[in-house]
Amino acid sequence: MYPKDWDGDVWGETEPEKKAPKEKGELEELEEKGNLEKRNVRPLTKPESYGSPWWSTLRRKEEKKREEKREEKRREERREEKRREEKRREEKRREERERRERRERRERREEREEKRREEKRKKKKLPINMFNPELQNLAYILVTGCKAL
Fold first, then answer.
1. Contact predicate 53/73, CB 8 Å
2. Which helix (H) or strand (E) holds 68?
3. In this structure, what is the dihedral angle of CA atoms 95, 101, 106, 109, given to the nearest 10 degrees?
4. Model-level pTM?
């Protein structure tokens, strides 16, 4: 068995040149700034005990940012849904209030109309019997009194 170096390769073996993964975001920004060479060569890495390669760290950071954005979108959707639900509840309350008010107005109007009808009935129920001598005298006095004025 051959001894292995720090990144797990057997000594003396050659491996094809590994290329750094292309990530959108910070990697492209670094390339644009000139901080990262444009050549696609495997960057130097530290042994596993010292941590992960730099692109993994960037990938984790970008994934964390994406997850935060997703979470913020979810929170915003929940807020929007709560607003919509509150609007629906308010609309239902308003419609119920309007129905109640219309019903009360209708009932009051019906009561007024019923009172008017009752008054008309009362007036109609007082027929004057012109054959009653007292009423005839009263009617005569009223008519002659009005003429005198």
1. no
2. helix 54-124
3. -160
4. 0.38
pLDDT tens for residues 70-82?
Answer: 999 999 999 999 9
CA atoms within 13 A on the CB side of 36: 19
C-alpha dist (Å) from residue 41 to 21, 23, 45, 49: 10, 15, 12, 23
- First-last CA distance in the chain: 144
Of 13, 14, 30, the C-alpha closest to 22 is: 30
User: How distant, in Å, are the alpha carbons of 31, 94, 108 from that of 112?
Assistant: 85, 27, 6
Contact (Cβ atoms closer than 8 angstroms) between residue 41 and residue 20: yes
As a whole number of angstroms, the distance between CA 116 and CA 10 comes to 110
Q: Which two tokens stand for residue 3?
A: 């001894």
Which tokens hold the place of 28? 């492209």
DSSP count for the chain of H helices, then E strands: 3, 0
